[in-house]
Amino acid sequence: MTSLLEGAKKLVTRGTDIGARVEGLERAVEAARGRVDDTVLEETSALVNRTATRLRISADHTVVALAGATGSGKSTTFNALTGVDLSAVGVRRPTTSWATACVWGSEGAPELLDWLGIPPRHQVTRDSMLSVGESKDELDGVILLDLPDHDSTEVSHHLEVDRLVQLADMLIWVLDPQKYADAAIHDRYLKPLAGHQEVMLVVLNQIDRVPEDRREAMVEDVRRLLVADGLTGVPVVAISSREGWGVAALRSEIARKVASKKVAKQRLEADLRAAGQRLESVTGTGPVPTLSGDRIEALEDAFAEAAGVPTVVKAVEDSTRLRANRATGWPVTAWFSRFKPDPLKRLHLNLGSDAKALTGAARTSVPTTTQVQRARVDSEVRALVDDVTKGFKQNWSHAVRGASVSRLPDLGDRLDRALATTDLGADRIPVWAGLVRALQWMLIVAAVVGAAWLALLALGTYARVPEPPTPEWGGWPLPTLLLGGGILLGILLALLCRVLVSMTARRRAQIADQRLRSAIGEVSRELVIEPVNAELQAYATTREGIAAAVR
Which distant-in-sequence residues (6+ apart) come within 8 Å of 212 by Cβ? Predict the structure, then answer.
């Protein structure tokens, strides 16, 4: 059933102005679900379905409903317009909740009458045996409804009037001189129909009971009340259905509107526009905001602090310095550094390709988020939401705020995982460090050779062995140069490399900081930014749909 209705809706609305309004409302309703009052959304959806159904059936007929209070002469007016006593008047009127329908032109009417819910026993076709031989009536194509009294004490009468007022293409409100200003009809029916003036007529009946010199003033007073109801320009026709005064003019006014073949379309457009305006009243009219780059950056900073990024960056710098000093330091003393613990290993952090073996599925040992850090995260999330919801209705602000914190319970795990899976680049020794290491060992070998050479010379002297000639360079014995130069140059090279190591460590720390913040940025986008943007996109879709409906 639903699929058939959807198919019919697309068939009758595609490519039309009403179709654009219907599609806009549909988009707005779907985007607003869960964010605004469900009652408003359900009423709007019902209107969309009702519009599609009305467009699908009998475009050749116009449904005109006569509505009024008890004693207004509504049924007498109905009989006067039809020319036949179809509706019981006064005390003879049956206490039924059904409306009476008179049809001019029967082709296509049964389906429309069935949709209106008018039982067959309350239907009369005007061009049947009741009017044989008569020429074509000016009301041909009209289905005239005599509704129950809207002020009846019967609840079923109220319900029937409310239902058919929604379905009728054109509404004629029959007022009488005594109760034309009654708040019951103005507040319950006329004010809610503001914007429907194109499909509405007001009849001031029983004008014969008003002194002639007061009639025009009373008609003007009715117009004034209609303007106050938001119904400027609604024609007001003064008649006496009992005496027949003004009935012909009323018939002509109805015929004029019906002949244009625009009444049904105008009613549907007015309904769709009114529904869009009501939906707009609960969604707001503020422009669609975008997230501030400064707010996003501040949020990422708060996430980074909560994740312990400064601690990790410091560990990367210290670990790089430790490893590089071990590789480039003077080998005689550098091996002592092996007794120092690696800062990254203490944190159980990713050291590169061996990350899985090192961390597995376990958590890192980075200190857990403190209350102060978590408070800063919460503060930045609130500031971001406050920034984008300025001018929003309270319900939509709540929706955005709820989305912003909906995934924050996963914050600790997601931050820890981001740290554990980020390649910090600290496992790779700089290329130049390998060359320095080779050079250091060459200097150590030279020093050892020089020491051994000098030892042999000393042993020869002690044993009174003739001393072989000792090569010199620059006036210095070569063994002495090898020993002293190897030690001195090794120490100087180690000191020089400390400067290079410090620069490398800082550079590695900067790279690690960038990678970590990029990973943390992904977490902030996943947990906060994307849910908030989804709400903003839903708001944008709703605003676009409403704009299409009310334009």
Answer: none
How far lies 521's CA from each of 7, 132, 302, 414, in Å? Answer: 45, 82, 10, 11
Q: Which two tokens stand for residue 181?
A: 């200003």
Strands (E), 348-504: 472-473, 476-477
Which of 59, 84, 10, 17 has its CA nearest to residue 169? Answer: 59
Residue limits of CATH 3.40.50.300 in the chain: 60-260
Instruction: For residue range 305-343, list pLDDT tens digits in order.
Output: 887 777 777 777 777 676 666 666 556 555 555 556 665
- Tell me which residue of 88, 100, 92, 186 sits closest to 147, measured CA to CA: 100
Structure tokens of 124?
Answer: 């009369």
Place of tokens 């018939």: 251
DSSP per residue, 410-439: GHHHHHHHHHHHS----SSPPHHHHHHHHH
Beta pairing partners, 146: 66, 100
- Amino acid in the structure at residue 311: T
Strands 123-125 and 142-146: unpaired
| Structure tokens belonging to residue 239 | 């008649």
CATH code for the domain defined by 60-260: 3.40.50.300
The whole-angstrom separation of Cα 471 and Cα 487 is 20
Q: Report the alpha-carbon distance of residue 547 to residue 42 in Å, rounded.
A: 19
Number of residues that this document lists for the chain = 551
pLDDT tens digits for range 222-280: 999 999 999 999 999 999 988 889 999 999 999 998 888 889 899 999 999 999 999 99
